[in-house]
Each structure stands twice: as structure tokens, then as C-alpha cells.
Specification:
The chain is built from five helices and five strands, in the order βαβαβαβαβα. The protein is α/β, with parallel strands linked by helices. Strand 1, helix 1 and strand 2 form a beta-alpha-beta unit.
């Protein structure tokens, strides 16, 4: 079963992403929802999701730190990480690429794009 992890400290964004992706649950995808970077890190290590939607600005550990740990310290190339942020500045995009993010999306995001990207990454 494919797994998608959603990590965002804003309840509204978490719920929006969950509602956006819940149609994939009918096709056997498990959604894992976390509210901060520490929870995200623990769940990524325990669950090994294929796809992670990671907010940049979160308490305990930010998205850059989580991404860096997964991609560079653990060397997990098979976990696709999409950084989500309200910041669209070039500096942040550059930093996201440096820590190993596979894709960088700015909020507000298009729900149809999120579903299409998830389907593409999971080969659905």
C-alpha cells in the first residue's frame, strides 16, 4: 500500500490537503497526518511513505531540517519530498533544492495539481 505523509502545523492546510488527497484512499493509498516537524520525522522513519508534503515553517523541526535529514543524512532517495510554503522567494527555493527537496510548491496551491502530482509520483 502506498503512503502519503502530510506535515503542516496549520490545521486548515492539513485538512485541505487531507480532503484533496482522500480520493486516493479509495485506491489503496494511506494518508498519514502530522502537525510538526518532529512528528513528521518520526512517522517518515517508521512508515517509509513514498510521498511527503512538508510545510517549511513548522515547530520543533522545520521542513528544511526534516528534508535534509531524510535525503542527506539517511540518504533516502526513494522518498519523494514536496516542500510547501507561503514563501515563494528564490532564496527559499534554492535552500529547498540544497536540502534535497524533489519539488517546491507555494501556497495557496491548486488541489487538482496536488492530486495529479501525487498520482504521477505513485504511478497511479
Amino acid at each position: 500500500m502506498a503512503k502519503i505523509l502530510i506535515a503542516d502545523d496549520e490545521t486548515y492546510i492539513r485538512v485541505l490537503l487531507e480532503q484533496t488527497l482522500e480520493e486516493l484512499e479509495d485506491e489503496g493509498v494511506e494518508l498519514i497526518i502530522t502537525a510538526n516537524g518532529q512528528e513528521a520525522m518520526e512517522n517518515i522513519v517508521a512508515e517509509r511513505p513514498e510521498l511527503v508534503f512538508l510545510d517549511v515553517m513548522m515547530p520543533k523541526m522545520n521542513g528544511f531540517e526534516v528534508c535534509n535529514k531524510i535525503k542527506n543524512e539517511l540518504g533516502w532517495r526513494d522518498t519523494y519530498i514536496i516542500l510547501l510554503t507561503a514563501k515563494g522567494q528564490e532564496f527559499d527555493k534554492q535552500k529547498g533544492l540544497e536540502v534535497g527537496a524533489d519539488l517546491y510548491m507555494t501556497k495557496p496551491f491548486n488541489p487538482d495539481e496536488i492530486v495529479a502530482k501525487a498520482r504521477e509520483i505513485l504511478g497511479m
